[in-house]
Design brief:
This protein is mainly alpha-helical. Helices cover about 70% and strands about 5% of the residues. The longest helix is centred in the middle third of the chain and has 36 residues.
Length: about 200
């Protein structure tokens, strides 16, 4: 029995040493890769830091939809259309929530003629139609000015940026309190990144 125990102990020590050796080799190889590619290390560290401090984006579904690049231009355009449909639906969702809150406030709050809340609500309801017209016309001009194969990317970027910024403004003006917190858990701050640029209520 003692011989078997010594034999098992020897095998166990050998396995531990082997595991430790390969683990050390793995660490050295990865550290060596970062040593030769410091920009890679910086990028990885930045991604980790951003994911640690940034809230989960309300656009996560749209962001993940076109994460993998397409080699076919038509597939890329089709993917962007699906992604933008989600972004636009989120914009409408936030807008309708503000309208709902404003309508509710008219039912319970008194107001003077100097505070013409019904007229303000009516103007607010029209504002999104005006925004959409402005956005679509501006981005159409960017499409034709972009020229060549850049047209679709310039146009899609314009539509995405303007819609997301509009959603952020809707939240800032109607869905956060004086402390800067969301008035509803279902409508968090739409902090977002568009091509590496962070837009939030702090900007």
């Amino acid at each position: 029995m003692r011989i078997k125990y010594k034999h098992a102990a020897y095998i166990g020590k050998f396995l531990l040493k082997a595991i430790g050796y390969y683990a050390l080799l793995f660490v050295v190889m990865h550290l060596g890769m970062f040593a030769f590619y410091p920009s890679e290390l910086k990028s990885r560290m930045s991604d980790l830091a951003a994911s640690a401090i940034q809230p989960e984006s309300v656009y996560r579904e749209a962001d993940e939809l076109c994460r993998d690049p397409y080699t076919n231009r038509n597939d890329n355009i089709a993917c962007w259309k699906e992604s933008f449909k989600i972004i636009d639906e989120i914009n409408l969702k936030y807008f309708n929530k503000v309208v709902e809150n404003l309508q509710a406030s008219l039912m319970v709050e008194s107001f003077s003629k100097d505070d013409d809340k019904p007229a303000a609500l009516a103007a607010y309801k029209k504002s999104r139609d005006h925004f959409i017209k402005f956005r679509d016309e501006l981005c159409s001009s960017q499409y034709w000015l972009g020229g060549g194969t850049r047209r679709h990317s310039v146009h899609s970027n314009c539509m995405e940026v303007l819609t997301k910024q509009h959603t952020l403004y809707i939240w800032q003006s109607g869905l956060k309190d004086y402390q800067g917190n969301s008035v509803s858990d279902d409508f968090p701050e739409p902090a977002l990144r568009v091509h590496g640029t962070l837009f939030s209520s702090q900007n």
